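The instructor's notes for this session suggest beginning with a concrete chain rather than abstract definitions. Hand out the sequence below and ask the class to guess, before any prediction is shown, which regions might be ordered.
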Amino acid sequence: MNTVDTVHRAARALLRRPLLRAAEQEEFRLVRSQLAELRSWFDANTGWRLHADADVIRLHKEPAVTDDATRPARDPRNRNAFGRRRYVLFCLCLAALERADAQIPLGRLAEQVLLLARGPAMADTGVEFTLSGRDEKADLVAVVHLLLHWGVLARVAGDEEEYLRGTGDVLYDVSRRVLSQLLVARRGPSTVAAEALEERIAALGAVEPPESDEATNRRLRHRLTRRLLDDPVVYFAELDDAEAEYLRRQRPEPRIEPDQQTGEVDITFEVREKQTGSVGFGTSLGGSLGLTGFLTYEQPNLFGQAKSGNLRWEFGRFSNNFEAGYSDPAILGSWLSGSLSLFSSRDRFFTFQEGQRRRTGMATRVGIPTPWDRYARFTTGYSLSRTTYENFEDDESAQSLFSLPPGVQSTISFGLSRMALEQYFEAIDDLNRALDLEPRRMDALLVRASAYRYLGQIDLARDDVERALGIDPGHPDALLERGVIARTAGDKDAARKDFLAVLHLTAEGPASDAARLNLEAMDVRVE
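After discussion, reveal the predicted structure:
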């Protein structure tokens, strides 16, 4: 079974039973083997925390809504739903067990519950316990069975039926680790000042209000995902305005156009790209530069292709600087990335000596992917600048910084960088949805193959590439990816064959560049 399926099984196990004990060996080992991926997914999509230690795994599963009465606690024996008395007894039992020793008899637990029930906090609730009749004892036994089911208690000796008949008692071990993980709340109940039940429940899960649009969207995503995990079908009428608008923004309504002659249906999603550029301006007052102003323009997505450009002009009596920059992640559609910046600056000084310095120049950088990792790049850069000085003092013979002759400076730099988001599972989920809509989409198949390869799922990666080659047997990118997969799997002959096939199909372009790099890394000479 591949890693993605294993993560899905582990997530389902946690959602089915958010509290797992080491005694539940199969599910406990399954979830523990995928902790990193599960923590990342639940944190990003639900905001839930995942606790794990040697004995307990606990998903701190907070509900999307707090007024849903369709999922009550139930007696594990007969599935009877808990009523108010049993819920109160459950809380009193937890409070008593928190103070208990490592072992406790059922009779002793009942005595502690009665003591807590007579406390001042219970005076105004209208709920009384005497545990004198069989019905009240049966409520306590139902709570105990739920605690046994969750692993808070473990029966050592005795039987609850004997306790109900009044002919015996039961001894339990108390698991502190499980007990400490039962409560899911962002704050302790004793710190909540509200008195109404609804207000107290809301306060237990209250979080700070979002301070940005991104935080607001993240909060909405968490709330909706929580609802969908509990209820696979959620109607728009059940959502508030913010939730409904968020969903509409994520999934725009398609235009559906059936062809009456062929029976085919065209589904078109119209996507409007938002403007991402920004303009800035302002002023500043400094001791040496006096009053200065600036104007800036930044565009992080030029032409809708992730190219970026920026302009900045600073001006004032003693300073005048201009800078322009441009970067391209895929020069002419290739795998080469590059950047270019031009600058011109003038600074006038009058504090220690009076004069002016002017610098003009440029800097450029080019990056190329490594043969073993398309997300890692070798970069090389070059900068060239010329500096001139102008002396404003009358005595030109005096030793002065501004009497220096013009100078030229050039710099060469080298670097290695890697993009390391590595959100492969999220990418695979998105690609699965794209391929459900369009199974023959080449780019989605190849990107998913790459994601599977990075996860070590070579068979799945190879399956996607073969599907792509079944659509277009001579697709250079598909042959390149198959070669990289073969090289990763240690099959150098198959990798060499695919890389040479890429060069035979296309002499220039991103695929041929990458094929050459891979062949050079394998010490294969290309004629």
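Then share the key points. The chain is about 40% helix and 25% strand. The longest helix spans residues 213-230.
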